[in-house]
Design goal:
379 residues; alpha/beta; 13 helices; binds 4'-deoxy-4'-aminopyridoxal-5'-phosphate
């Protein structure tokens, strides 16, 4: 079969490749995948089941059930975000679909999209699928992996059409304060960039409050915000997310969505509505547990003599690798049966780091860190 150049030139996900290795081995502890170890809150699951019992198995409106959009509109006010349910919210099949739609809605062939780096693995390919050219913009460890005005300038982002950011960040766990975001916002306004802000980990912020760049002066009209239920509500398999933005952006995204997806999964929309209405306590409990693990993991790495940045969001630690990150990850997997992701998978700037997911129970986490320590001691 003839395949498109676009498909043929897309490399397999670096994370998946690594995990195929791990799957062939026994007794592996995986700190690899970015997926909660919890199940979705029971009330959300019950709402999904109940919707099926009532025979709610049809499509919903393209934009998503009105009640769900109204609940999202209300929910995001906790981040000082003000988006109306009629025109400014689109319910999507995971935040993944929202990112894809936004890129297709704003990128013309040949446009440049600056991407904060290291970055979640989907953004670069997503930009290419929309016909654009990704431009990685390195963040630096000495700035706690938060993008600065200088980083953007140095990378040539002034000539880009759009900028993709993500706080709390995957893979670094970095969060950005309002002051830090203000620098990025200034650059975006000065160079007329559209900002695509992936805030899927907003609820998993451990120090201070999450701030959205869309709340800063002059930013709402140029920003699309992504969020979803996968991380905060442990609902990865239900595939539900959403986009918030000015009516014209949401309308453009919906015009693509109505031909490609029709509507997000109906059962998941019922679960999500319930999650927003009654599962704050479950989210708070999961956050507390992630936070305990976060402190534990970072302090264990530091005790082992590895430099480990103080991640304050999401569920990843991003320590420095003792030697080449890819080699280290492979050696550790073969020698001790612990799977981590080499930082280079997330872009050039990830080289020399390891992404360690702590969305894993404390017992397994302790054992994994003991094994890493044994591996380092034996060198
Ligand atoms: N953005 C980031 C930063 C992520 O880490 C992930 C999931 N790994 C996604 C988006 C995709 O989320 P969803 O399951 O909602 O498609």
């Amino acid at each position: 079969m003839k395949l498109s150049d676009r498909a043929a030139s897309t490399p397999p996900s670096g994370i998946r490749r690594f995990f195929e290795l791990a799957e062939e081995m026994d007794d592996v502890i995986s700190l690899g995948v970015g997926e909660p170890d919890f199940s979705a809150p029971w009330k959300a699951r019950a709402a999904a089941i109940h919707s099926l019992e009532r025979g709610r198995t049809s499509y919903t409106t393209n934009r998503g059930m009105y009640d769900l959009r109204a609940a999202i509109s209300e929910h995001v006010t906790r981040y000082d975000l003000d988006y109306g349910p009629d025109e400014e919210i689109l319910v999507t099949t995971g935040a993944s679909e929202a990112v894809d739609l936004a890129l297709r809605a704003v990128v013309d062939p040949g446009d440049t999209v600056a991407i904060q780096s290291p970055a979640y693995i989907s953004y670069g390919p997503g930009v290419r699928f929309s016909g654009g050219d990704p431009l990685p913009v390195s963040t630096r460890a000495e700035n706690d992996f938060v993008l600065t005005y200088d980083d953007l300038e140095r990378a040539g982002a002034a000539d880009a059409e759009a900028l993709m950011i993500c706080y709390p960040n995957n893979p670094t766990g970095a969060t950005a304060t309002a002051d830090e975001l203000a620098e990025i916002a200034t650059f975006a306004r000065e160079h007329d960039l559209t900002v695509l802000s992936d805030e899927i980990y907003a609820a998993l912020t451990y120090e201070g409050e999450h701030t959205s760049i869309a709340t800063l002066p002059g930013m709402r009209e140029r920003t699309v915000v992504f969020n979803g239920f996968s991380k905060a509500y442990a609902m990865t398999g239900l595939r539900l997310g959403y986009a918030l933005g000015p009516a014209e952006a949401i309308d453009a995204m919906n015009r693509i969505h109505q031909y490609t997806m029709l509507s997000a999964p109906t059962t998941a929309q019922y679960a999500a509505l319930e999650a927003l209405q009654s599962c704050d306590d479950d989210v708070a409990e999961m956050r507390t547990q992630y936070d305990r693990r976060r402190r534990f993991v970072i302090s264990r790495f530091r005790d082992m003599g590895l430099d480990c940045f103080e991640a304050t969001g999401a569920f990843y630690a991003f320590p420095e690798a003792p030697y080449d990150d890819e080699q280290f990850a492979e050696d550790l997997l073969h020698d001790q049966g612990v799977a981590l992701v080499p930082g280079r998978v997330f872009g050039e700037e990830g080289h020399g780091h390891l992404r360690v997911s702590y969305a894993t129970g404390m017992t397994a986490l302790k054992e994994a860190l003991n094994r890493i320590e044994a591996f380092l001691d034996a060198r």
